[in-house]
Design a protein that fits this description.
mainly beta, globular, two-stranded antiparallel ribbon, 43% strand, 182 residues, ten-stranded mixed sheet
Amino acid sequence: MNRKFTFFLLLALLLNGSIKAAGIFRPFQLNTSVSELPGFDADSVIYLSMLQSELDNFLRDSPSCFVLEMPYDRAGRTLRLELERTRVFDGAPQVNAMDQEGCHAVQVEAGLNYRGEMQGSAKSVVAISFFPNEIMGMVTAVEWAGNRNISKVKTDLSGTLYAFVSDQGLSSPMPMDCLTKN
């Protein structure tokens, strides 16, 4: 763990609420009951169940920095992501969507946005955003080919299902256009 992050984590542990107990946030559990879903190569994805109460507590505490621990393989091994809060938007986010009627403004919540690195991998990059009903993010490290994405797959009566998937293992590309004025 780098010194700057260690200092900020210790400071956050002293100042924050429920996360201060260990400085570790665990919003996901490995879900082994899901069979393969369309669009994902079975060897490059694991499925996770999100613990909504953990997310609610996290959003309430909104720590300046913390460690996110999550499963990364079917054996249940975990990785730790050292994250610090960052401002993505200056003020309220301004998002436009394109449809048949053209381009128009869409209301979105700013959420809490974090960046950092995978513990033990200085040549890694992590970006994760937290919203009241969703977590989304990306992890890339020299140890892996490509990126690993944290993506909500579905929500139903049994809860919210996520995929932690390598973008190298998608059976078809994910359609996305991300444009900025700059």
